[in-house]
Amino acid sequence: ALVQSKAYQALTPEQKASAGQAFRDAQGDAALSKDMASLVGSASFQSASGALKTDRLRELALLHSAEFKSLPSADQQRVRDALTARKPGDDRLGGALTDLIKAKSFQKLTADEKTAVLSQMRNYPDARVAENFGKLLDKRWFSGGGLFNPGMSLQDKQRTLKSVAYLTTDTSGDATIRQNTLNRLLDPKSDY
With contact defined as beta carbons under 8 Å apart, do 15 and 7 qualify? Predict the structure, then answer.
């Protein structure tokens, strides 16, 4: 069936590994085989760059994962919207969103906090934003942790997410200043 097809056989070892991971993550979801065959056989997939093919396979794995399926339907749609709105040339968004949604720090969020993160991903569909959100969620000043650090209110978290997303994607002004600001806020070694 799928693994015997010409389209599947043409995948690189890395892409086949991504496909294999998708099947493991899907835990027997029968729809994955059909969706995988449709994806790898499509003309848009066949003509995509190697990096984009790998990312589309990671995207498919995400959409069939337990973590994705555990999200409310509105949040699932936010993820789909972000993936659909990907900018040309962004061949890392599927993988970056997968890493974000599967991260322990994301899984620990409340339902409202997950919605806030995914809303900003829909508004700023960029792999760099997903990567920076992953770093942000690991910061104690954002997420809280411990008796004397309860973290931010939901409203402050929403404003912070929007600020980080904007700084990540903005192209006006001095890029060095923006990147230094993000590094200062998000670097695991920073004292913030």
Answer: no
Opening angle at CA 65, ends 62 and 70, nearest 5: 110
pLDDT at 146 over 90: no
Q: Are 127 and 93 in contact (CB under 8 A)?
A: yes
Instruction: Please list the alpha-helical segments (H only) found in the chain.
Output: 6-9, 13-26, 30-41, 43-46, 50-63, 66-69, 73-84, 93-102, 104-107, 111-123, 127-137, 140-143, 154-169, 175-186
Name the amino acid, one letter, at 79.
V
Asked if the model's pLDDT at residue 145 lies above 90, the reply is no
CA-CA distance, 169 to 120, in Å (whole number)? Answer: 12
Quickly count: other Cβ atoms within 10 Å of residue 7's Cβ: 15
Contact 134, 108 (CB under 8 A): no
Look at residues 129, 122, 134 and name the one whose alpha carbon lies nearest to residue 163: 129
pLDDT digits (tens, 9 = 90+) for 173-191: 889 999 999 999 999 888 6
Cα 18 from chain centroid (whole Å): 15
Cβ–Cβ < 8 Å for 79, 110: no
Q: CA 159, CA 157: separation in Å to the nearest integer? A: 5
d(CA 189, CA 16): 36
